[in-house]
Structure formats: C-alpha cells, structure tokens
Amino acid sequence: MLHSTLASVALYSDLTTEGITFRIEALRHKQEAIKGINAKLNSHEGISDEVVGAVATIASFENLYGAYNAAQLHIDALKRMVMMRGGINAFAHNDGLVRGLV
After folding, report:
1. Which of 20, 25, 59, 83 is an S-S bond match for 10, by CB 3.0 to 4.6 Å?
2. Which domain of life is it from (predicted)?
3. Are 82 and 101 in contact (CB under 8 A)?
4. Region 8-26 average pLDDT
C-alpha cells in the first residue's frame, strides 16, 4: 500500500521543513491509503500482510501527526486483524512485518 508510505514521507517532510504543501500531500496520501485498505478488506484478499502493514504505517503516521485518538483506533484495528489471522505467529514468514508489529 504505497500511499501509506508516501503519507509518512510527506508528513516527515512537513515536520522538518514547515511546508504546508507537504502537509496537504501527507493528508491526501493518508486518505488514499485508507481507501485502498478498505477496498482490500472488502475484496477476496481480506486481511493480507500488505493490509496489516499499511494499517501499522497509518497508525504510526497518526501518532507522528499528533492524532493520538486516531492512532489508537488504528492500533485497536491492527490488534483485531492480527488475532483474526491467528496471532502474531501467522506472520512468521514475514520477518519485517513481525518486527513492525512488535
């Protein structure tokens, strides 16, 4: 989910340069990421590694942005998704994702 990563990069750029352009781009990419996440969740793919990673990235984005309540909502959703997949061991094949989740 490219847009979740792009949102984080734009937000980091905004925080380090005080540029409104980056803030607008960060929020636009976050919105696109959430649309993509919802589309994947409503498809046959369901809760894929890609979706879990994107939600983790959006939770981190919200935390960095200072939107702590929104971050907590994404973290709670992330916990539910991990449990629905069978727990953290269900991701053992994806070491990078496991590191991001713990």
Report:
1. 25
2. Eukaryota
3. yes
4. 71
